[in-house]
Design a protein that fits this description.
53% of the residues lie in helices and 11% in strands. It is α+β, with helices and mostly antiparallel strands. The relative contact order is 0.16.
Length: 221
């Protein structure tokens, strides 16, 4: 073999290696992009007639005035809010005097001993909304009537499924066990920039908690 031929062969080998390296880098780059997209992809939304997939609202009634309430199932002030206004709001929605939009969100996972109770409970509520929509309010009210204290582990998934069954939503058990809508709860919490609960909006206007009683009186009488 001549020196020229050897030089030519060496160059082709180097080119082949370079091409292989580029292909590997492209594949790895595509994989990284795919994994990043998977990590930041929005959680799947529930499929239900009572759930707005974009806003996360679980809606009742068809009144002109819309009241949105963002709640965390671990939040004690949310429990107090539901005791004070929950029945009144739900009755007004049932009578189509208002449109009531309930939003399960998660800001208090840090108060449940690393069990992510707020996120799991919110996800369980969406499971009920999808699998047994007629039982949603019974489940929602049961959750607040039996609300765990902050800085406890909250309820297990099995207990949440038991609560759902008691509310007539036994069909939601597998969805709850799988944590199907936990990501959706987190996404909606971030999307609506919820910093505290309860957060209340009236006809799209976010109002101060100190003004809730007055504003509700204007709408509900």
């Amino acid at each position: 073999m001549t020196m020229a031929a050897a030089k030519s062969n060496t160059n082709w080998f180097a080119i082949g290696v370079s091409i292989a390296v580029v292909v590997v880098l492209v594949v790895l780059g595509g994989l990284v992009v795919f994994l990043n997209n998977q990590a930041t992809a929005p959680g799947v939304a529930p499929t239900s007639d009572i759930v707005n997939e974009e806003t996360g609202a679980v809606s009742f009634g068809s009144g002109e005035d819309e009241i949105d309430v963002y709640v965390d199932f671990m939040c004690p002030v949310c429990g107090q809010f539901e005791q004070a206004y929950g029945e009144q709001l739900q009755t007004a929605a049932a009578n189509d005097e208002i449109t009531l939009n309930l939003h399960p969100v998660s800001i208090l996972d840090r108060y449940s001993q690393n069990t992510k109770y707020s996120t799991r409970a919110g996800g369980a509520a969406y499971c009920v909304a999808e699998n047994a929509p007629d039982s949603f309010l019974d489940f929602f009210n049961y959750m607040f009537a039996n609300q765990p204290q902050e800085n406890t582990a909250g309820y297990t998934d099995e207990e949440l499924a038991s609560f759902a069954e008691q509310a007539g939503a036994g069909a939601a058990a597998d969805c709850i066990a799988d944590g199907t809508y936990m990501d959706f709860v987190g996404d909606q919490t971030s999307a609506h920039e919820i910093q505290g609960t309860p957060t209340v909006e009236i006809n799209g206007e976010r109002i101060e908690n100190a003004d809730i009683q007055t504003r509700f009186a204007e709408i509900l009488g």
